[in-house]
Every structure is written in C-alpha cells, then in structure tokens.
Write a structure and sequence with these properties.
The protein has 172 residues and is an alpha+beta fold. The protein contains five helices and eight strands, in the order E-E-H-H-H-E-E-E-H-E-H-E-E.
C-alpha cells in the first residue's frame, strides 16, 4: 500500500507521484541521464532516451516516488514491493530508475529517495531490497554501497555498459 503522506527532508518533500507529475517526471529522467550519452553512444542513447521519456508509466509497475520543492519535481525513484509467492523464497523488494535533476544534485535527494524505498521494503516485510546499476553510475554506486548494498552479480551489458545487481539484507 503506497505511503499517503509526504515526508519533509532538507527543504524538499518525498511523496508518491501523482498523474499531474507525469510530464515533469519524464523530462527530469531524460535530463538526469543525458550525461551518459557520450559514454553509451548515440544508438544506445536513442533507445535509453525513448525509455526515459516514458518513465511516468512506471507507476503501473510499483510505487513511483518523487522528491519535490516549491520549484517542482527534483528526483524520482520506482519502488517495487516484494511479491508474495508460495515457494518460501526470500521476499525481495526492488528499486529502479533513480534520477535526480542535474541542477539539484549534492543535496541528499538520491539518498533520501533510496532510504524511502528501504523503509517501504521494511514496512512491506521484505527480506532484502535489490537494484541494478551501471558501472558508469559513479555517484550512485558508492552511495548505494555507503547505505549497505553489496554487489551480488554482474549482469553483462545493457545500453552498451556493464551492469550489476546489488542487494541490501534487511533485518526483521
């Protein structure tokens, strides 16, 4: 069940995305990932940009969360709650598509959005929370590691760059 109240953090709030946020979310994601265009090349950038330009549709896959201040949406992340199954396997929550406006980096927005996902995973009884990230994510990867995420496995190339799966074991 999505969180209904907004929480204030360092001059911005964390809240669930709403339909009127769609255009801002899509625009922010394209801007946030544009710095990787030279790294991944034009053909990969075209594919990635098309995906990012539809980021607001991720709300159908989980809980799309935004950070905002009076100027608008500053960052987004998708939280995917653990799925119930009958196998008895550990229940994993996921976070994906963390993006922070290039104009608002260094203010703890990415960390706050990640911590919000961790708290939601605990709320939902997840055994762990996972994510995938790319080698080129030289700010995000160390942040995830500082929060306790550890690399589980290499996943090969995606959009022309190496990706890996990370997870954080949650204490119950």
């Amino acid at each position: 069940m999505p969180q209904t109240s907004a929480t204030e953090q360092r001059g911005f709030i964390i809240r669930d995305a709403r339909p009127p946020d769609s255009e801002a979310i899509n625009h922010l994601c394209v801007k946030a990932y544009a710095e990787f265009r030279p790294v991944i090349g034009e053909s990969n950038w075209k594919r990635l940009r098309e995906t990012l330009a539809r980021a607001s549709s991720l709300s159908y896959e989980g809980e799309l969360i935004v950070a905002e201040d009076a100027s608008g949406v500053l960052g987004i992340v998708l939280y995917i709650p653990p799925r119930q199954d009958q196998s008895g396997s550990p229940k994993s929550a996921w976070l994906q598509t963390l993006a922070v406006s290039p104009l608002h980096r260094g203010k703890g927005i990415g960390r706050s959005l990640t911590c919000e996902c961790i708290e939601r995973a605990r709320r939902d009884g997840a055994d762990n929370i996972g994510l995938t990230t790319a080698e080129m994510m030289t700010v995000a990867r160390p942040m995830y590691e500082r929060l306790g995420f550890t690399k589980e496995s290499d996943l090969g190339q995606r959009f022309g760059v190496p990706h890996a799966r990370y997870s954080l074991r949650l204490s119950q």
